[in-house]
Amino acid sequence: MKPWLLICLTLLCGHAYPQKPVREVTLLYTNDIESVYEPIEAFWRDDIHRMGGIPNVAAQLNRLRSREGVFFTLDAGDIFTGALSKVTLGRLPFDLYSAMGYDAVNLGNHEFEYGWRVLREVMPRARFPVLGANIFFSETDVSFAQPYAILEKQGIRVGVIGTMGVDAFINTMMPNNRQGLRVEKPVQVIQPLVDSIREEVDLVVVLTHQNRTAPMQTNKEADPQVQRGIDEDYELAGLLRGVDMIIGGHSDNGLHQPVVHPESGIPIGMTFGQGMHVGSATFRLDPVPTMISARLIPVDADKLTADPVTSGLIQSVRAKYPELAQVVGHLDRQAPRLYYQESHLGNLLADFLRSWAKVDIGLVPAGAIRADLEAGPVTRENILNVFPFKDTLTVVQVTGGDVIKLLEKSLSLEYGFAQYSGLQVWLRGQAIERIEIGGMPLVEDKVYSLATGSFTASGGENYQILARSPQSVSTTLVSDAFVEMLGLQERHRVPDVGRFLQQE
User: Fold this and answer.
1) Which of 309, 246, 314, 254 is nearest to 278 (CA)?
2) Percent of the chain, pLDDT > 90?
3) Predicted pLDDT of residue 504
4) Is the pLDDT of residue 20 over 80?
5) Helix axes 91-99, 54-65, angle to 10 degrees
6) Is pLDDT above 90 for 348?
7) Helix/strand/coil percent split, the chain, to 5
8) In this structure, what is the dihedral angle of CA atoms 47, 49, 51, 54, given to the nearest 10 degrees?
């Protein structure tokens, strides 16, 4: 055979051509990190002592992105809340997530804590697209935020759409903070956007902020009872077409492996929140996008060197507001929170409200307690991390019949188990047998005074019973009342649990 013919045959067989490289992309994702600037003691785990802390999340992301490959870093919302976010009106969170290298962030309900006008003003600080496709200015079709983004790295294009659930928008925000805006059902907005960009991108990702309201419980990873599920994301996955992954937020559920909808094939990912894990999902793009691996990666604070850039940003804010370091009291032991049960911290805060307002009953919703308190000195920043909201203390006049309805609502666990002071309840199973207020039997037509925050008093988390009752709103912030009451004693005794609910 002639040499030139052998060369031609070799070329025709493809042996002289390099193979087409396999195209892969990895999504790194988080949700609901909120105000967890420092590591959390992982008391529920035997293998890790401390987890999370934003500088450690940043270090974990940097470590993952240092590997070979194409990475896009996404967050499903709730980057605001906590003391440092509050004093900067959200500027610090946007600066932090920019420094952490996020490529897109979805709006969560906590981004509206200071009102949508403040949010709108600070969003331009972000060096990434801030997404919210189904939130519009009232009476218009004008989007409040950017509906979607097309991200590109090394020739790989990813379309990212951000949305918020209707319940998250309506029932977990102060009405004044969303007044002037409206929300549409996510599916009605997402599918037309998917159809418009599908042919332009290699991968389509939907960031959601929905499902049932998150359980405010630090060890939720180890407590299946409080894991609130992914019902709305799962339903959405069954309705959409042309989507390659849903990354969810709001319920703070966690999925060590994504759940794949059996009909659409769309995988759903979520990370438990509070910066304790980073999600990682790798897709092979050819011939069609296919997830080839996925996992949650714990943020082990003792095995990471905290990122100096984000640490510096946090410390610069603390230096600017030295009053946050003021010690306002001491606790004799740790006061943890629980979402479905009476808790040490819940009892403490409800006691503070009742004592400060000099009323019959104190009420603190489980979802309002955003962090635990550790034994020893307690700073103003600690208190503001526990209750970071701008709620003012409100006294509501309720009848004994209203109290029964409030307790039945708590026992339904719709938004967790509300924490009370001044009440004692006897149950037979889940049925209320007897109620005492101030040591005396409840009288259904008697009027009692109840202290809570203005969000709850205005019907937040579906507390419509309170919204319909006579009330007086003070100018005192709930957080200031907590600070004042904690400082009244040199060392405050953490109240026991088991004093409120009794089984017959």
Assistant:
1) 254
2) 81
3) 60
4) no
5) 30
6) yes
7) 35, 30, 40
8) -140
> Rounded to an integer, what distance in angstroms lies between the CA atom of residue 258 and that of residue 247?
9
CA neighbor of 220 nearest in space, from 89, 379, 367, 24: 367
Q: 41: closest CA among 53, 32, 49?
A: 49
Do 438 and 422 meet the contact criterion of CB atoms below 8 Å apart? yes
Q: In what order do the strands lie in the sheet with 431-437?
A: 440-441, 431-437, 423-428, 501-503
pLDDT of amino acid 5? 42
Give 342-402 as a 3 state SS string: CCHHHHHHHHHHHHHHCCCEEEECHHHCCCCECCEEEEHHHHHHHCCCCCEEEEEEEEHHH
Cα(415)–Cα(212) distance, integer angstroms: 8
Neighbours of 338 (CB within 10 A): 24
pLDDT in tens, 304-318: 999 999 999 999 999
pLDDT one-digit tens code per residue, 189-212: 999 999 999 999 999 999 999 999
Q: What secondary structure, in 3-state letters, does 188-200 show?
A: HHHHHHHHHHHHH
The amino acid that residue 441 corresponds to is P
Q: How far apart are CA 397 and CA 446, in angstroms?
A: 10
- Mean pLDDT (the chain) is 92
CA distances from 442 to 4, 362, 390 (A): 102, 15, 32
Cα separation of 240 and 191, whole Å? Answer: 6
User: Of 118-122, 126-130, 259-263, 489-493, where does mean pLDDT reach its minimum?
Assistant: 489-493
Helical (H) or strand (E) element with 457: helix 454-457
- Within 10 Å of residue 331's Cβ, how many Cβ atoms? 21
* 3-state SS assignment for residue 120: helix
- Judged against a pLDDT cut of 90, whether residue 121 lies above it is answered with yes
- Within 10 angstroms of residue 185's Cβ, the number of other Cβ atoms is 12
User: Helices marked H in 282-339 — which ranges?
Assistant: 308-320
Amino acid at 446: K
Taking alpha carbons only, the member of 374, 381, 385 closest to residue 335 is 374
Buried residues in 254-280 as b, exposed as e (16+ CB within 10 A): bbeebbebeebebbbbbbbbbbbbbbb
- pLDDT above 60 for 265: yes
Say yes or no to pLDDT of 1 above 70: no
| Predicted TM-score of the model (pTM) | 0.88
The pLDDT assigned to 377 comes to 94
Element (H, E) at 239: helix 231-239
Q: For residue 27, list its beta bridge partners.
A: 72, 281
Beta bridge partners of 131: 106, 146
Distance CA 55, CA 308 (A): 7
